[in-house]
Amino acid sequence: MEERADLKLVGTKESLFTQRIVWALKLKGIGYEFIEQDISSRSSTLLLVELNPVYKKVPVIVHLGKPLSESLVILEYIEETWPLNPLLPLDPLNRASARFWARFIDGKFYEAAKKAFFSSGETKAEGVESVAEGLLLLERQITGKKFFGGEKIGYVDIVVGWIAYWFQYVEEVGEFKAMDSKKYPFLDAWIKTFIQVPIIQQSLPTPEAVKAVFKGFKDAALAAAN
Description:
InterPro entries: Glutathione-S-Trfase_C-like, Glutathione-S-Trfase_C_sf, Glutathione_S-Trfase, Glutathione_S-Trfase_N, GST_C_Tau, Omega/Tau-like, Thioredoxin-like_sf. By secondary structure, the chain is of the alpha+beta class. The chain folds into 2 domains: 75 residues, Glutaredoxin (3-Layer(aba) Sandwich), CATH 3.40.30.10; 134 residues, Glutathione S-transferase Yfyf (Class Pi), Chain A, domain 2. It contains 9 helices and 4 strands, in the order βαβαββααααααα. It has a 4-stranded mixed beta sheet, with helices on one face. β1, α1 and β2 form a beta-alpha-beta unit.
């Protein structure tokens, strides 16, 4: 896979949202230049302000000189621009269903995980309960399947993919436990299969790097609250 001069990905290796784009591009066989950012660096911050002035976050792709941000938006753009090796189903109803579950993950489930991660006491317990409810819904979706996309990794797998690796460190740093292989055996089987796929495995950041990022988020939240 040769690097393309007209396609750049601006992100961090530890970012679960950046990795979605890495996986999609590699699964489609699309070359790109990776511009790694150090979020603590002023130069990186200035670049993100320039490329993504609304959210100032990674990931951002720059294609033909034009920037595009937000991982779900970028995934849709990649799918439409390079339709070879499709990630979304061809059937319109199944495509709509895939988009529904992607929005569930980045909406309701992600917010529940944040609540469990950052909160304490009763509020934290409510967050953990909501996370467990979300995991049960995913368990039902993956039951009887190898991947959410069927026999191969698809759009939903890429969006849910952070649960396969990052979520264990969200639990560890956030001091809660929701994932249980006995309660969610099909989801657990998917996790083990997903992270063993070479394209996925080769892109994963180290546990230490991921935990350092999450600890930074936690410390910043505590400092802001005091």
